[in-house]
Amino acid sequence: PELPYAPDALEPHVSAETLSFHHGKHHKAYVDKLNAAIAGTAYEGQTLEKVIAESHAAADTGVFNNAAQAWNHTFLWHSMSPAGGGAPAGPLADAINSKFGDLAGFRDAFKRSALGQFGSGWTWLVLTAEGLDITNTGNAETPLSDGVTPLLTLDVWEHAYYLDYQNKRDAYVDAFLSNLINWEFAASNFDNKRAAA
Ligand code: FE2
Fold first, then answer.
1. Which of 85, 118, 135, 169 has the smallest number of CB atoms closer than 10 Å to its CB?
2. Ligand 1: distance of its center to the CA of 154 in Å?
3. Whether the predicted pLDDT of 181 surpasses 90
4. pLDDT at 147
């Protein structure tokens, strides 16, 4: 999929150079490798979510890693917005306050989780049967495999921030939480899941 905004739309927090490599090279490579891997197999023509579930169950890591990374990155682009930052509204805001005390409590917990991920991976706000939670996944892993509903994510692979922040993951996480986080996307995922339930 195309980016939902121009490559320079997230500047200065994520540079056009980072976004062009991240979307045009990294994300594209996962999609291209997935398409090559599933050609002529039972996966071909399935939804991406079904390919993720079936390759995960079969420990078919070559397919799973590329399928999950294709999905995770599309979800990431929507988790950021040029008009991001600020605070959630509506039922999601109530759930954030109930779980984390207030928005500052959420930010502290999300940042602690993102900085605690050793090596490559992802930090997620998810909706479980018990309510909101923050979780990390390593490498290509996705919370879809755990039966929970992702609400938003941040990519903490170095390729997501190294050109702009070098080794300073904490500054990248701060920039995301203050300026980019797309609360409307998270609220839409939250409301859709609750309506379905
Ligand atoms: Fe990435």
1. 118
2. 9
3. yes
4. 87
Give residue 75 CA to ligand 1 midpoint distance, Å: 11
Residue 26 CA, ligand 1 centroid: distance in Å:
7
Helical H runs in 39-182?
Answer: 48-57, 61-79, 90-100, 103-116, 162-165, 169-175
What spacing in Å lies between the alpha carbon of 172 and ligand 1's midpoint? 13
- Residue 170 CB coordination number (10 Å): 12
Whether the Cβ atoms of residue 128 and residue 148 lie closer than 8 Å to each other: yes
Ligand 1 centroid–CA 41 distance in Å is 26
0.90 surpassed by pTM: yes
Q: What is the largest CA-CA distance in the chain?
A: 51
Q: What is residue 18's three-state secondary structure? A: helix
